[in-house]
Write a structure and sequence with these properties.
Shape: globular
CATH architecture of the largest domain: Alpha-Beta Barrel
Number of helices: 15
Strand content: 15-25%
Helix content: 25-40%
CATH topology of the largest domain: nicotinate phosphoribosyltransferase
Structural class: alpha/beta
Length: 479
């Protein structure tokens, strides 16, 4: 698994702040930090939360090795007292989070940490690295699979991913988002993701004739007989030779599973190939396409009437083409002395673009009478709103905007306890269950919020109590 292997997966200033807190006598003050993001990636209407299991496993195993301490000592920045403090460091906080595979939205906490401020500070960078990237790739995969169809997408991104760890993490997240299999064998071993693949052009060029290459491949792999047909000439060589092999297999009681197109005008070629296969009686032979695909290209191919059954998506999926990073942040919302009263904290940036929300919060997901997701309401954990009748929700940043929600059939908490007493405190579902959750969540989201272009905005509102306190603190911050 791609669990951060050491607490040194952090930014240098986290450690200098920790030492500063220790010197200042506040390192054991309890703090609340929220992990949230400011905008959906790809100009889309939603984000898929992913990476939680690996984030929790990092917290559970967090400790400084003697080699870690020696390295920090060599930097000549940290005192002996601070290094001794790190030698016995453990994460003892509590974590609440949305279930992995949950559809989430900007401005709402998707993970909440309550712990001594030093502990919160140390884990910030690793949590963001883990959850930001996996959520980004899972969201990209969900968008691709919405266009191609779930169980119609193979993830082929290993060779173009950002390093070996990036490829492994991307394979996990892509499977969660809806891809049916990966080409990455290591991901198959570690995560149990189905592995799939065909053959490369080099298989064809290694033989004297294309037909010879095809015959040998299906002889060795009759149960994985997908032939790459564009090495020389797709319509005049590749497909006719594949049809010959397919008919030979048919006589032997076997079946040519598919042909793969990897270049050219995929819409035109797929239509022609489908016609040729059907005329030859190979109506069950699938057409697999690759070649720099993403959700937008797949959308256009379908509009053009392409006859494609399975899509191999690589570079643009694992590199999150169009959105280099998720805008996730980790911000303090409250702090208190041990045994003292909480003091709410917020950040008030110019124009409120980067403003944060104070207090220990919960997110309630509201459903309408049809069972569809209506909106998310953020308010204080210890002051749940009254959902028995309609209620007002307030914009997180624009203080003059509010909306009345009525017809609420159900309101459920989505931040649940997942870590306590130094260990994981929740069941961690297998990847197929997380993958299924994504599809169930998306089906409860209105189609207008799932479309690629100009999606309808899903509302995230503040409850009355949180709105009141937030406005008050923002006004006081002006003084």
């Amino acid at each position: 698994m791609t669990v951060p292997p050491t607490p040194l997966v952090t930014d240098f200033y986290q450690l200098t702040m920790m030492q500063g807190y220790l010197v200042s006598g506040i390192s054991e003050y309890e703090a609340c930090f929220d992990l949230f993001f400011r905008s959906n990636p790809f100009n889309g209407g939603y984000t898929i939360a992913a990476g939680l299991e690996e984030a929790l496993r990092f917290l559970e195993g967090l400790s400084f090795s003697s080699q870690d301490i020696s390295y920090l000592e060599s930097l000549e920045t940290f005192s002996g007292e601070f290094l001794d403090y790190l030698r016995t460091f453990k994460f003892t906080g509590t974590v609440h989070a949305v279930a992995e595979g949950t559809v989430v939205f900007p401005q709402e906490p998707i993970l909440r940490v309550l712990a001594p401020v030093n502990q919160c500070q140390l884990v910030e960078s690793a949590l963001l690295n883990t959850i930001n990237f996996q959520s980004l790739i899972a969201t990209k995969a969900a968008r691709v699979c919405q266009e191609a169809g779930v169980d119609n997408v193979l993830e082929f991104g290993l060779r173009r991913a950002q390093g070996v760890d990036g490829a492994l993490t991307a394979s996990r997240a892509a499977y969660i988002g809806g891809c049916m299999a990966t080409s990455n064998v290591q991901a198959g071993k570690i995560y149990g993701i189905p592995v799939k693949g065909t053959h490369a052009h080099s298989w064809v060029t290694a033989f004297n004739k294309e037909l010879e290459a095809f015959r040998k491949f299906v002889e060795i792999y009759p149960e994985n007989s997908i032939l790459l047909v564009d090495t020389f000439d797709t319509l005049r060589s590749g497909v006719p030779n594949a049809i010959k092999v397919g008919l030979e297999m048919k006589k032997r009681g076997q079946k040519l599973l598919g042909i793969r197109l990897d270049s050219g005008d995929l819409a035109f070629l797929s239509i022609e190939v489908r016609r040729m296969l059907d005329e030859a009686g190979l109506v069950d032979t699938k057409i697999v396409c690759s070649s720099e695909l993403d959700e937008n290209i797949i959308h256009d191919l379908k509009i053009q009437g392409a006859k494609i059954d399975i899509y191999g998506v690589g570079t643009k999926l694992v590199s999150a083409d169009g959105e280099p990073a998720l805008s996730g942040v980790f911000k303090m919302s409250a702090i208190r002395k041990p045994g003292g009263q909480w003091r709410m904290k917020l950040k008030k940036s110019e124009g409120l673009k980067k403003a944060t929300l104070p207090g220990i919060k919960q997110v309630w997901r509201l459903y309408d009478v049809e069972g569809d997701m209506m909106a998310d309401l953020v308010d204080f954990e210890n002051k749940p709103p009254d959902f028995s009748s309609g209620l007002w929700g307030f914009h997180p940043r624009l203080e003059t905007e509010k909306m009345f929600y009525d017809g609420i059939s159900k309101a459920e908490k989505i931040l649940m306890p997942v870590f306590a007493n130094g260990q994981i405190a929740a069941d961690l579902p297998a990847l197929p269950r997380i993958r299924e959750r994504v599809q169930n969540q998306l089906s409860a989201l209105h189609p207008t919020m799932r479309r690629l272009l100009n999606p309808h905005i899903y509302k995230v509102s503040l409850g009355a109590e949180l709105n009141k306190v937030t406005r008050k603190l923002r006004e006081e911050a002006q003084l």
